[in-house]
Design brief:
By secondary structure, the protein is α/β, with parallel strands linked by helices. The protein has one domain: Alpha/Beta hydrolase fold, catalytic domain (Rossmann fold, 3-Layer(aba) Sandwich), CATH 3.40.50.1820. It is built from ten helices and nine strands. It has a nine-stranded mixed sheet with strand order 1-2-4-3-5-6-7-8-9, sandwiched between helices.
């Protein structure tokens, strides 16, 4: 456990275990600690025979913060992930990314394909036309912070039952991160995802407008991708053992028929055409 300097930021990093390397990248407004509460338990994965590196992204958890929106652009987050690998001496590693972390992992794989061995993409973020929907939702949060300040925004979010995830954030991070990721000069290049040829496991679910099922289906078209759709949006949060077992099996390169997860997880072929189900009322927040 300690800190490393990456891209001019002091980042909190934790390392545990011995074996093949796995970097865990959390979602927007998440952290190492929050990921563990939401099903991604790095220590448990390490017990399966892996060297796990997990870090708090800039502006999150115990890492140094910034209120500049350009510091949260997708390219900056991908560079940060690769920078963490450099800082801990990893030439190659697999990456488990959730939401924002999944987006950073995808861009890292496009920028440095020789460095990313395998990808586990949990609740991948919106891409293409789906981004507009997320902009409307989280754009409302950004406006609250800009017009009412942190205290005023938190009062409104508390009344709406949406305060928990935002209450843990550092000053100035919430509007900057929303602007950088959703309103900045860059978007995830949906059409380029088929260029990613490393083995990839995509874990998604229906009924989540911030992480549309369509994103999983788009990524499922990558040449070496496997798509799994959980029965509900909170499934992996409440089944951490199943998630750990699935991730460890995939990272070891075990064949699909040897994976065992409790029902009712549904296995889908890469190009499945399932339709998205109705959306929720959440204003945002990720693990």
């Amino acid at each position: 456990m300690g800190h490393v300097s990456v891209g001019g930021f002091d980042l909190h990093v934790e390392e545990i275990g011995v074996g093949p390397h796995l970097v865990i990248a959390h979602g927007m407004f998440g952290s190492v600690a929050r990921s563990a509460r939401n099903g991604v338990v790095g220590g448990e994965i390490a017990k399966r025979g892996f060297h796990v590196v997990q870090y708090d992204a800039r502006g999150h958890g115990r890492s140094e913060s910034t209120s500049l929106r350009d510091d949260y652009r997708w390219e900056a987050l991908a560079e940060e992930l690769l920078g963490v690998m450099d800082a801990v001496g990893l030439k190659q590693a697999s990456v488990l990314g959730t939401s924002m972390g999944a987006g950073a992992a995808l861009l890292a794989a496009l920028a440095a394909p020789d460095r990313i061995e395998r990808l586990v993409l949990r609740t991948p973020p919106a891409m293409g036309p789906d981004v507009r929907r997320v902009r409307r939702r989280l754009g409302a949060v950004k406006v609250l912070y800009r017009w009412l300040g942190t205290a005023g925004a938190m009062a409104v979010l508390s009344a709406l039952g949406q305060a928990e995830v935002f209450a843990e954030q550092q000053t100035g991070v919430v509007p900057a991160a929303i602007e950088g990721i959703l309103f900045g000069r860059s978007e995830l290049p949906e059409q380029r995802m088929v260029e990613i040829r490393c083995p990839a496991l995509i874990l998604t679910h229906a009924g989540d407008p911030d992480h549309p099922l369509r994103s999983g289906e788009v990524l499922g078209r990558m040449p070496s991708a496997t798509l799994r759709v959980a029965p509900c949006r909170g499934y992996w949060h409440t089944h951490p053992e199943a998630l750990t077992t699935l991730v460890a099996s995939f990272l070891r390169g075990e064949p699909l028929e040897d994976w065992h997860t409790p029902p009712p997880v549904r296995e889908l072929p890469p190009n499945s055409g399932l339709q998205q189900t109705p959306t929720s009322r959440s204003l945002g927040g990720r693990s």
